[in-house]
Amino acid sequence: MGVPITRQRFTPEEYLAWEVQQLDKHEYIGGEVFAMAGGEDRHATVSGNFYMALREHLRGTACRVYMADVRVQTNEAFFYPDVFVTCSKADAQDRLRKREPSLIVEVLSPQHGRL
After folding, report:
1. How much of the chain is in helix, strand and coil states, percent to nearest 5?
2. CATH number of the domain located at residue range(s) 12-105 in this protein
3. Cβ proximity of 17 and 68 under 8 Å
4. Strand extents, DSSP E, 53-110
């Protein structure tokens, strides 16, 4: 997780309105907003492989697979999982956030574990 953005606390609605105007991605936890750090090629390769395998496996179903550019909302947090799956009809209608993921995949970076 990155460094908190210097600003007053955001409500979830303020965060969403602000975030769609930003060039970089930010995660939101309990009113605080954190800039996302960039990744490396190994991380992108592993994430991409998960995405492709899940997408192929779920082809023809109502489930959708998303990568790091789509945010998930859980209670008072918004974050960008590396890969996630949702089969929710409500999620299919919401373009700004998904709230009912069935599976979340986070690829660990070298400082947290081996790739």
Report:
1. 25, 25, 50
2. 3.90.1570.10
3. no
4. 64-67, 72-74, 77-79, 83-86, 101-105
pTM, entire model: 0.83
CA distance 98 to 3: 24
Residues 6+ apart with CB under 8 A from 27: 1, 2, 33, 34, 36, 77, 78, 79, 80
pLDDT by residue for the chain (115 residues), tens only, comes to: 555 555 678 999 999 999 999 999 999 999 999 998 877 889 899 999 999 999 999 999 999 999 989 999 998 899 999 999 999 999 999 998 999 999 999 998 766 544 4
CA distance 4 to 15: 13
Pairing of strands 101-105, 77-79: unpaired
Domain layout of the chain by residue ranges: 12-105
Instruction: State the Cα–Cα distance between residues 46 and 53, nearest whole angstrom.
Output: 11
Give the ranges where 24-75 is alpha helix by DSSP (H): 41-58
